[in-house]
Amino acid sequence: MKLILVLFAFGIAARQTWAIEAGPLLIVGGGNVPAEANRQFVELGGGRKARVVVVPFASSLTNAGESAAEELRSLGAQSVEVLSGTNRTAAHAALKRATAVWFTGGDQSSLMLRLNELGLVELIREHHGRGLVAGGTSAGAAVMSKLMIAGWRSGDLPLIGEGLGLWPGAIVDQHFVARGREPRLRLAVQMHPELLGVGIDEGTAVLVRGNDFEVLGRSTVTVLDARGQRGQLEKIVISAPQKFSLRDAKKTGSH
Questions:
Q1: Is 110 known to be catalytic?
Q2: In CATH, what class is 21-248?
């Protein structure tokens, strides 16, 4: 009996030791990507050993993704590949060997359409669940949530589409202060009060690990929370360097 108990306890410990967690997220609200955010992204992806894939499908520019790739190489990542939107086999192979993936700016609906056409959405979700670091800016930020703001006209409800779902408990909006997007995020949260609205301004990033995130950069992140018992919308504005707990929707202090 003692031997069985020891083996059972060892089995539990082994499962805990080898548990695989979803990779961190580095989400930028557009504009200039904070230097600290780029450095953190490369470091989290493995530093010099990082295998980074840049996904430029949100943009219609022919050289989209090249400037991001050059910046990541300058920070020490020796393997940085910009995906082609025409070769399904090569795209799958690149993402399977990647340690980090970066989504550039542009149009989030175009990005999701191309990812679906190439059959990459489930692959990215599964790989991220096994530790893949994922980051993006502007449109590349919007796709991080499962419910994605795809557009909005003043006076209407926001157009909601399906994102990658790498941050399932939140709905992300970008260029938040610079483009006055609080009204549309408020509407989106009122439509889906089970989600936290996270509005990230330009030149600002959130580094998400589990139920917490850290703010990096020069401006602010706004959290809209309607999960309370009365359903009232609470607004919290966070600036760098501060951390925030998604579990209880409170700041956890500066560092």
A1: no
A2: alpha beta
